[in-house]
């Protein structure tokens, strides 16, 4: 067999063994296994589930309000993918608790999920101002902020951020 033929045979054999997106990768804990995907750097699904399960959770009553808000946003808006995930919400809450800011500015609040997640971790006298362009999104955010009893900490302002 010539070297060129042998090389192409090996490549063909490798291609059959290793199909795209079929690699298995063990997580460092050996608990989480996921497939390699073309997800442009996003967490793999199984790793995100693992991180979500073992992350510090957002306390009640905020957790129920956030779950309800997420379901309603997904049902009412075709662009619900703009909302952060529960894992990202937990991270935002933890960062707020860690840094204890007096003021937080959120540009683009959507339906308020991230504002409530951050607001749940705010110190007692701190304020969060969320700027939202769409009035319908802002109204839903205000409704759920009231349900979470965070209206004394979170203010929603409607209109272009450049005018605020």
TrEMBL record:
Belongs to the class I-like SAM-binding methyltransferase superfamily. Cation-dependent O-methyltransferase family. It comes from the Eukaryota. The lineage of its organism: Eukaryota, Fungi, Fungi incertae sedis, Mucoromycota, Mucoromycotina. Its EC number is 2.1.1.6. InterPro entries: SAM-dependent_MTases_sf (IPR029063), SAM_O-MeTrfase (IPR002935). GO terms for molecular function: catechol O-methyltransferase activity. This is catechol O-methyltransferase. It is an enzyme of class 2 (transferase). Keywords: Catecholamine metabolism, Methyltransferase, S-adenosyl-L-methionine, Transferase. PROSITE patterns: SAM_OMT_I. The keyword S-adenosyl-L-methionine applies. GO terms for biological process: catecholamine metabolic process; methylation.
């Amino acid at each position: 067999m010539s070297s060129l033929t042998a090389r192409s045979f090996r490549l063909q054999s490798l291609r059959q063994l290793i199909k795209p997106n079929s690699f298995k990768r063990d997580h460092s804990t050996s608990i989480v296994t996921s497939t390699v995907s073309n997800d442009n750097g996003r967490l793999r699904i199984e790793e995100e589930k693992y991180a979500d399960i073992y992350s510090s959770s957002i306390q009640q009553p905020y957790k129920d309000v956030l779950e309800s808000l997420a379901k309603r946003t997904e049902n009412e808006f075709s662009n619900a993918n703009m909302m952060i995930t529960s894992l990202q919400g937990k991270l935002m809450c933890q960062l707020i608790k860690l840094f204890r800011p007096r003021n937080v500015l959120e540009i683009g609040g959507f339906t308020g999920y991230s504002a409530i997640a951050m607001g749940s971790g705010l110190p007692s006298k701190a304020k969060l101002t969320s700027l939202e362009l769409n009035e319908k999104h802002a109204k839903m955010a205000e409704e759920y902020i009231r349900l979470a009893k965070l209206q004394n900490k979170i203010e929603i302002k409607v209109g272009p951020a450049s005018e605020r």
